[in-house]
Amino acid sequence: MKKHILTILILVILTVFYYLGGVSMIKKLVGYNVPQVTMLPIGPVVDFLKVPEGFQVIKFAEGLINPRVIAFDPGGRMLVSEPKEGKVLVLEDKNKDGIADGQRVLLNGLRLPHGLAFYTDPETKTVYLYVAETHRVTRNVYDVKAGAIDEAQKIAPQNISALPADGRHFTRTIAMGPNYRTQPILDNQLQKETLSETKLYISVGSSCDVCVETETWKRAAILESDPEGNFVAEFAGGLRNSVFFTFHPVTGEMWATEMGRDNLGDELPPDEVNVIKVAGLRDEYGAKKYGWPFCYGNKVHDKTFNYAGAERKDIPTDCGRTFPPAIEIPAHSAPLGLAFIDSDRWPEDWRYNLLVAYHGSWNRSQPRGYKIIRFKLDKNGNLLQPKTQDGDDFITGFYNGKNILGRPVDLKFGPDGALYISDDSAGVIYRVDPVRNSPADL
């Protein structure tokens, strides 16, 4: 009888606790602190975002659901992934007024699609669209003229690479980039393929906040393949969650954002931007390692991570054997998309600067991020400030001090020289452009 009374009492207490805000209190206790989301008014006007004088922001598209990665096909159309919907959309601005005329579904029924990339075969001139789902990368022949994929291919796309699925970090991002290797990865096997002029790079985040990945080497890494998928290898490791990466327009080097682990307080560890280098013949691990899970920031040992499980000899515990970031970003900023400014339409003194989207914190007592930052670099990618100093605010207003109005994700410059920003909270694609002063600028 006493047990029944105790059970009923506990249920009553939990019910009262729930209705008095218990869920919020629990989230606070575990460090979950995301501000409330405010819905945006419908229409192209964006008056809540603040940009420097000489720039303007409008909505290119709205009414999307969790839009993430932006890609432009060879015909100039925008493609956008909606992971939670399992879709890839096509957005077109046929009348060139800076606003999408509508949207249509290109692919549907996918498993958390995220990364998108195009590749044109140099011999056959066939154009392929690559799509990174959480468990694989596929490619389809893409009809540039129609902006379409044959229905038969949608049913059975070519599988380029199998990936470990889901996990804490389930997104997979891809991009075509240059080959950095001078020696084949595999002796007497696939020598031509592992030195292909163009490589497919694949970012796969960790399955956890902080751990040693013992089930697969394909996590917490950026992988590489040839465009046909003849092999998959680790290009760089020790990267907890490098969701986005891009290539410097002059040096060709790969730059990647990196989100540090949680639960070390408001100021640790720093998030990062890394310049991802290829391993040389003297690199003992076969791929350069950037610290996680044992190290963070400028080769700092994570004293809170005490691991006594199965050993992986390709993961250094000595931070002296890891590579530091090019830029340290304030903890919990959650850097995602990044893009180099390489457009003649933008101010000359902004040329080759780096823009980074801060998606915003969830594991911090006071929210941080929710903006786009500009880092000043010279033509060769050298940082013109201390690497531990944050950049300059470029676009702010996604967080107004109380509510979230948006969370920026991907940054892509379009064929028109404008910057496009995906916002997975507001369901919007923004278009950012220097203010046009005369009809000749149109």
List keywords for this structure.
mainly beta, Neuraminidase, four-stranded antiparallel sheet, 4 helices, 29 strands, globular, disordered C terminus
Can you give a write-up of this model?
- This protein is mainly beta.
- The chain has a domain at 68-337 and 364-387: Neuraminidase, CATH 2.120.10.
- It has 4 helices and 29 strands.
- It has a 5-stranded mixed β-sheet, with no helix packed on it. Strands 2-29-28-27 form a 4-stranded antiparallel β-sheet, with no helix packed on it. Strands 3-4-5-6 form a 4-stranded antiparallel β-sheet, with no helix packed on it.
- A hairpin with a 4-residue loop joins strand 28 and strand 29 (428-434).
- The longest helix has 18 residues, at 2-19.
- The radius of gyration is 23 Å and the shape is globular.
List the topology elements.
Layout lengths: L1 H18 L2 H8 L6 E2 L17 E7 L8 E3 L5 E5 L4 E6 L9 E6 L7 E6 L6 E6 L3 E6 L9 H5 L2 E5 L9 E7 L12 H4 L3 E7 L16 E5 L7 E5 L7 E3 L6 E5 L12 E6 L11 E2 L5 E2 L3 E2 L25 E3 L5 E6 L13 E5 L12 E5 L16 E4 L7 E2 L3 E6 L5 E5 L4 E7 L8
Parallel strand pairs: 1-26, 14-18
Antiparallel strand pairs: 2-29, 3-4, 4-5, 5-6, 7-8, 8-9, 9-10, 11-12, 12-13, 13-14, 15-16, 16-17, 17-21, 19-20, 22-23, 23-24, 24-25, 27-28, 28-29
